Fold this sequence. Notes:
Elements: H1 3-7, H2 9-38, H3 43-65, H4 70-91, H5 105-113, H6 118-139, H7 143-240, H8 246-276, H9 288-303, E1 308-312, H10 324-343, E2 352-359, E3 363-369, H11 400-410, E4 414-419, E5 425-432
Parallel strand pairs: 1-2
Antiparallel strand pairs: 2-3, 3-5, 4-5
Helix pairs in contact: 2-3, 3-4, 4-6, 5-6, 5-7, 6-7, 7-8, 9-10, 10-11
Amino acid sequence: MSAADTANPHALRRMKGRTFLVSAGMLLASLGLQNLLLGMSPAPLLWAQLLWGGSFLLLGLGVSTGWLAPALASPLSGLVCIIPLTVIIDFTGGPASPYFVTLVSVPLLLAMFTPDSSVSTLVGLAAMVGAVGVLDMRAGVPWEGFLRQAIVYLLIGSIGLYGGRTYQKLAAAERRAQEERLKALERLAESERVRRQAEAERSEVERLVLVGQLASGVAHEVNNPLAFVKSNLHYLDRELMGALSPEKTELRELLNETRQGVLRIQQIVMDLRRFARPTLESEEQGHPQEAMEEAQRMAAMRLHGGGEVVLEVPPELPPVRLGQRYLVQVLLNLLLNAADSVEEVVPPRPPRILMRARRTQEGVRLEVEDNGTGIPQDVLPRLFEPFFTTKPPGKGTGLGLALCREYVARVGGTLCAENRPEGGARLILSLGEVPTRSSPLA
């Protein structure tokens, strides 16, 4: 029996039940073999042997089925051994019986088969001494002879008791060693997980540093010629002002389209600069309810009445550790991305976007849900990467969500995305609560 078996009650029950059943089978088999070789035993001896084997059979069934606790079955097994064995010894000659010496084996057998419990060995030892006393008394053995027998048998039984106690200590030590091994493996696995996470974070930081340097250089190089183009377009627009001929009108439309393209390039340059140096200025806190309402109003203009943005805001939300302007920008970006994802649904459906907030132990959790088709599984891991976008060319730069996550991460918050089981996507923004300042003592 291993330490794992002693620690597992079900395994211990199965093992003890099997031990009792095997013992019952061996006793009944020995009875049959004895009667086959030596002839039929006398009725009292036969009934004692049947009682012995049947008692072990009942103990095995009781323990295996669960109606008898193993802790109770072990002491009972000692009595079940001693009583029939005493009857057999008394019937076959008392102290002169060839079976008399088997009494001393009972405590040893109990110590061997039930090493997890000292009670059964003690019960067997006491029952053995009592049986020796009864047999000696019936045979008229002097008390000196009984005392010698009792001392020897007690010594042998004590050896069994000590062996069982030693086994208990060894089993406990093995259990502790196994627990320490498991804890060491858990610590090793946790250390490896932390190392991999740190390595991934370091690689991500290095990559973002390189991207930031590239973005800063590109923004600087593009910004100067972009200013010349804007100035020239403004000059051409002034020159064409007042011209009403069809040719001039068409030319002004082309200039307007060109100006829109230049403004888009300028917006990309501004995004690149913000990504390269995303400072949060001096704002320290934002108010979720006000930011959600403002983002809802701004998104309504983008939806043009073709959808709705529903708010679920509990009262008295605490301020969060993100400036109001940046909080509105993040929420608006999430709303517009949700609206864009619904517009791509076939057949078309009006966007319905739910924006909710609730207070948590860490601060405030804001969620933006849409009724689109969700985010593809291969896109989810890359959703917040810089310059990654699933929008058609000319519609997205891939910097919006990257900037949002950067703003949130710099104040200790998190921004993640998941798909809803009922369909659509859910973006989750978690921000820490602004700590309340204790008033100065008067």
